[in-house]
Amino acid sequence: MVSFRVALQLSFAALTLAQTQGASKLQWGPCNETEVPSDVPVDCSVLMVPLDYTEPDSDEKLQLDLVRVPAPIKPSKGSILFNFGGPGSNGRDTIGTKTLAEELLALTGRQFDLITFDPRGTPGSKIPIQCFETEVDAWSYYLHRVPAMASDVELGKQWAYATKLADACFRTHNKTGSLISSAFVARDMMQIVDALGEDGMLRYWGFSYGTTLGATTAAMFPDKVEQMILDGVQNPHEYYHAQADFEEWTDADKEFSAIFTGCVEAGEKCELTKGNNKTAAELEQTIWDLLETVKYRPIALKTFILDYNNVKSLLVQALYDNSLWPLLARVLNAILTEQYDLVNDIYEALMPTTDIDIFKESQQPQVISAIHCSDNMVRSKTFDDFAPAIERLYNISKIIGDGVIFLNSACAQWKIEPKERYTGDFNVKTKSPVLFIGNTFDGLTPLVSAKNVSSTFEGSALLTVDGYGVSYLFLSLRDPLYRGFAGY
Questions:
Q1: Which of 84, 270, 386, 474 could lock onto 266 through a cystine, CB 3.0 to 4.6 A?
Q2: What is the CA radius of gyration of the chain?
Q3: How many CB atoms lie within 10 A of CB 462?
Q4: Domain limits, the chain
Q5: CB 148 within 8 A of CB 158
Q6: What residues does the Peptidase S33 tripeptidyl aminopeptidase-like C-terminal domain cover (predicted)?
Q7: CA 470 vs CA 2, 54, 192, 324, 475: distances in Å
Q8: Going by C-beta distance under 8 Å and a sequence separation of 6 or more, which residues neighbour residue 3?
Q9: For residue 479, is pLDDT > 80?
Q10: pLDDT tens-digit series, residues 253-276
Q11: pLDDT band with cut points at 50, 70 and 90 for residue 478
Q12: CA angle (333, 336, 337) in 5-degree steps
């Protein structure tokens, strides 16, 4: 059997040196280290692209800021573009992470330049989304982005606060908010491809939402796809056309249960099983009981309140990466045995306890809503119209179904319409076959999505990885603790 690493190396090794079609329009030079932190050598460039692709006669431009990890082996075979998810994640402050950059270079044969940028609407872009104008409004939004089952009255509040978000974004970003769609970002990427002056063909690797962006780009420019990997696949059909990303949470409960199965199999090495003979199902039920307890009787720690939101955030974070499972078992055991000083110390290590910039802290989830909701075509006039989606999410996943209600409530009420939205299907025949990658136990971008999307891309291949968590490399991109449930 060919290993995952070898399969990817072979995928890129098949490419020949890109034939230069013209001089590069990009001038690469040193990066601003404040804007582009990096553990590896990188260089930067800028590219001016149309601000609005629907107005070809307009002179308005948007500056794209690019960062490149140069190929160690010269001459370079060409460039590969990357998107690390979101929607709305910055690229420039991610690709230079040492472990990530070194792994990507190794997997691509160290013969390709690795390029990314901060897409439209993201905090690092020149048209960033920031819908709130006062700290009070930003704090109100930040504090109310919690799981819908955090209290018995939370569900209705979610709809109301999502209304406020939709109104605020419409008020502050009615123009720029219409220019951040995935279709426009796809056009931006093709502008980058042309500016590179290589062979005019796209080489791309996308993770999580980056797979939806990749699928969109491939559908819009099928003849320009030279090499594409979609890793940790989101279903773009639902992303654009459903009330919620229902399929995305298909395996969340299965992976959550695997945490406790693995704990029992580990025996005394797992702190949750020390001193008891509980089965995996009994251990899992203990944690569901704990969530119900702290929902109504939160526990006061030195620095934190241990409530439903804080406990569930930790549980959901563990779905991203099974290397977190031992820490999760330690924290849960400490809670159950009332070692609250230890619990507080662990939470302090994982979450900021100093003053935070609330505009910066609350910006990322706003960007996710702005991009996803503009792309999505489904609206609901009333809460009752949206209610069936809530029930369906609850039925699909107990662990994460209530965590995405806020995002989907915002999309249901979104008021900004994009200047261009991709409205086609994904029955695509690309110039070269697309490679899809999925994990067998992925609670957030399930294998079924990789299978479903791959089935509509003619000639594509599906690489299945026997493992837990979100994609192969996406795991290293997450913060130590996933605060909130905006998805992706």
A1: 270
A2: 22
A3: 18
A4: 4-127+178-245+421-477
A5: yes
A6: 407-469
A7: 21, 35, 28, 13, 6
A8: none
A9: no
A10: 999 999 999 999 999 999 999 888
A11: very low
A12: 85
> Quick count: other Cβ atoms within 10 Å of Cβ 62?
19
Q: Do residues 471 and 437 touch, judged by C-beta distance below 8 A?
A: yes
Three-state helix/strand/coil letters over the chain: CCCHHHHHHHHHHCCCCCCCCCCCCCCCECCCCCCCCCCCCCEEEEEEEECCCCCCCCCCEEEEEEEEECCCCCCCCCEEEEECCCCCCCCCCCCCCHHHHHHHHHHCCCCCEEEEECCCECCCCCCECCCCCCHHHHHHHHHCCCCCCCCCCHHHHHHHHHHHHHHHHHHHCCCHHHHCCHHHHHHHHHHHHHHHCCCCCEEEEEEEHHHHHHHHHHHHCHHHEEEEEEEEECCHHHHHHCCCCHHHHCCHHHHHHHHHHHHHHHHHHCHHHCCCCCCHHHHHHHHHHHHHHHHHCCEECCCCEECHHHHHHHHHHCCCCHHHHHHHHHHHHHHHCCCHHHHHHHHHHHCCCCCCCHHHHCHHHHHHHHHHHHHCCCCCCCHHHHHHHHHHHHHHCCCCHHHHHHHHHHHHCCCCCCCCCCCCCCCECCCCCEEEEEEEECCCCCHHHHHHHHCCECCCEEEEEEEECCCCCHHHHCCCCCCCCCCC
Residues 6+ apart with CB under 8 A from 74: none
Position 483, amino acid? R
Fold classified for 4-127+178-245+421-477: Rossmann fold (3.40.50)
CB 207, CB 81: distance < 8 Å: no
pLDDT, one tens digit per residue, over 18-74 is 666 667 799 999 999 888 999 999 999 999 999 999 999 999 999 999 999 999 999
CA–CA distance, 247 with 211 (Å, rounded to integer): 15
- pTM of the complete model: 0.93
